[in-house]
Amino acid sequence: MTVDAVTVTVRYGRIGAGGQTQTTTFPSAAKAQAAAAKKVGEKVRKGYAPAVRGQRAPRSVTRRQVTSAPSTARAVAPVLWRFGTGSSAFGIHVDDDRCWVGNQSGDVFTLDHEGEVLARFSLPDGVKCLVADDFWIYAGCDDGRVYDLSSKLPFAAYDIAADVDIFWLDIHEGVLNVSDRAGRLTVIDHEDEHQWTRRSQGEHAWMVRADDRAVYHGHHRGVTAYAPDGGGELWHTPTRGGVLFGWQEDDTVYAGTAHRVVQRLSKATGAVEATYACDSAVYSCATSPGGRFVFAGDAASSVYCFDRDGTRLWKLGTGGGSALSMQYRDERLYLVTTDGSLVCVDASEAAVTAAQQGSVPVVRDVKLAAALPTYAPATAATAVATVAQAPSGAVVVECVQQHGRMRVHVVSDGYDGSWNVQFPAGRYGSRGHATSWTRCTRPPAASTGCAERSAACS
């Protein structure tokens, strides 16, 4: 941030990177100085430390170092389609309508289930993971922010302190859970307020999963469960090798490890209920609903399927890189790989049987359309469309500052204007209208009560 007479310039972005700037002119130099001091105070209250340009190192970012060897499987998986994103990809989410993939270049793409590319988001830094919470979809990035991609304009929904070297994220009912390189678990609520931190017995925490009962934290010494309110450790279970990936079902969590196994643990006690043996380090795992089938991806470009008790049903090559993350849905296994591909595998019994006999479908290589729309986060209020007169049936909201924090209030008739609405941060003074509106199911802020949340804002 720089102040030049009546002008305040704020640069947003990681230390050492170019970032983006916002310039504001004030009526007097005193007002400019006051506005700058207020902005610095807001950041300090969020846990940031003041920094002078050139005197502080960039935010610590650990890029996951992975190797990928050729598959030793005798047959290749029945791949239906493949989409290359351009760089190594860790982020994946598949829902009823779309497949999402995020890569280390900061690109997030959405496709339909048949491989048609629908949209592209361009984020400021590499995407560590994609997580969903109800119908909200978030991307955790190496710049320390978690971006909400649920509407047309992505925005930073959470801002993580600079001393947290993010490895993985999960969000449950608006509460953000962050695991990091040092083996810490950091929990931040839906108001972007730090709640609690715990340090587990191990480092390199590549797993965090959360539900109503606990937060499950996987690191190089095993899996540790903590009470969701930060009340303490519930249980700790050593695993066969450091945890590289985690998955959860209603009553169990699954840990893929460096020692070539996936282990299923009871959420209630931490007891190991089953072990699924692979032939190389396990980079990713997933299950069919209820854990009937367990899938794993290893460092040698192979995918596996096991039944619930641990019996290996098949092993097939990916036809490309190693699967860094995966998700099963409707007899299809979706993979994101070391070569940056989103891969759709036909995991039906008939297709797998045919593949084991050497019969696989012709893979459709999905191409990126030149005219594909690309959406990037806005860094200034002027980037958000404002309205003089809202369309019929729309709800108008306004961003205001209250006690150093940005709040959003409804200004349309028929709503309580004192209630808060979740909306993109840093949009002070702007107005917009919500084209659809739904009741928020998240817990209310202690002092303000719960308002409502727009599903699509312009």
TrEMBL record:
CDD domains: WGR_MMR_like. Gene3D superfamilies: WGR domain (2.20.140.10), YVTN repeat-like/Quinoprotein amine dehydrogenase (2.130.10.10). Residues 1-61 form the WGR domain. This is Molybdate metabolism regulator protein. The lineage of its organism: Bacteria, Bacillati, Actinomycetota, Actinomycetes, Kitasatosporales.
